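To make this tangible, this section ends with a sequence with its structure tokens:
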Amino acid sequence: MPCRLEFWGKVPFTWIGTVLLCLGLAVGCGENVKFNNPFAKEKKQATTQKPKPATETKKQETKPKVDKEALARQQMIKTTSLRGSGTSRFGSGGKSVGANATVGENVLRLQKEIASSVDFAPTMLVWVIDSTVSATEMRDDWAQATKQLYSEFAKNGLPGGKPAKDLSTAIVSFGEKTNFVLEQPTTDFQEVIAGIDKIPRDDSGKEATFATIGQVLDKYGPLKAQQLRELLVVVVTDEAGDDWNSVDNVVEKANSTGVRLYVVGLPAPMGRMTAETPASETRSDGLPAMVQGPETRHSQRINMKFSAGGFGGEDVDSGYGPFGLGYLAYQTRGEFLVSRLRSAPWPGSAMRFADDVMRKYPPQYLSEQKYQAMLAENKALDALDRAARQAQVEAMAYPSSQFAVVDEARLKNDLDAAQRTAARLEPLVNGIYDPLAAGEKDRDKIQDKRWQASYDLALGRAAANKARVDGYNQMLAILKGGRKFEGPAHNTWKLEPADTLEEAGSRLEKMRLQAKEYLERVIKEHPDTPWAYFAERELEMPIGWKWAEY
């Protein structure tokens, strides 16, 4: 009996102690500890969550969104560290502009990519070399640097102590046709060095670049799979390729093959297929001898000459490679390595702009289908695309401007002859201005900085030229309708450039103001860029006319 009483006397304290112990464990473990019943059904996640601290919420709200397209377009040219000296048109003190790396320097830079690939897995490297006349200097520089590269491999072995068998090499050249110079990939570095000197020269001036790349993928893709190797393709060329329009098909083939493609090439002239500098080769089929651009899938720059002589030429180094090759390199996770040559006419002394500025204006590396879909969604972009396809418009640089009043008949004949200049230019200018003006309502929907700058510059320039041409014609019509001299001794009218078109009418004055607004916006919002440079050049010539008497 005493024992039983002692037991029951201790029960309450034991029970209480057990409860307190459980509570202490629950509190001490916190909300990170969960007790799961293995026999219970799986519960849906609770829809209510513990509210986060205000500071954390604010941090999440201000965190920038990751723009995959923006990241993709940062491809630009991954050779910033190789950039050298140069002076921007804008600013003081000079800036690092353009890529000053030589072909040889870029070839040796690829040693890191080769080492990285070999370190990952045995690798097959295929050199695809432009054998046309214009690429002679590039080819010579490539040969010298590549011999040095393979001589080091032969002497010191592959990077990381990898055996020679882990790197096999083939050499292919192209011009009008594809030539497999070192067809069977070899791990003998001396055989590679000997093969470098066997590349034939192609005098056709034609470049089937993408057809050759397609053949390389067809030939070495299956071999890559059989030998369980990584596949690197390096293209060395000074042009965009006559068949660059087939790039989407080649990209699809490259993605299915599994290849990383690099290009050692020249920068594209901004917004142009060809540079103004004379080509270093000829061809007999009537097509441009040197196709080196543009840097975008289709040109986003109107082809309109400047009325004023200006302080520079119209060739501008875009800072990017030709679209097709740049797009292919990007899609295969490779790089376009911009090179500069010692004696080639392009890019030569073409205007260049600072890398840190131009990196903010990358081309959009989109397929043709996605590019057209983008144009269909925005009337301003579509208008710019159509305007940029129009034929070149010559400037009304030196129109007749002085009219002596000898008699009414002679004055009328002189004015009629002068108006024919404006009549000839008017439909050409309208062909560029009209679509741009029609797409203006979608201008504010443009998000991409390159497209914004390109559209504003195009509309500003087109409006300026239309105001000049139509204003010139209207001012002549006013004189033809009768105008009296204020000075009794005066007998000559002179039409002078001026920043006004009020006398020509409110419509033209409104157009002049539109041109000025767009051009000044380009200069303000896109400083130190090619677009600002061209806007400044356009504003060198007053957008208007006034009559003076002598």
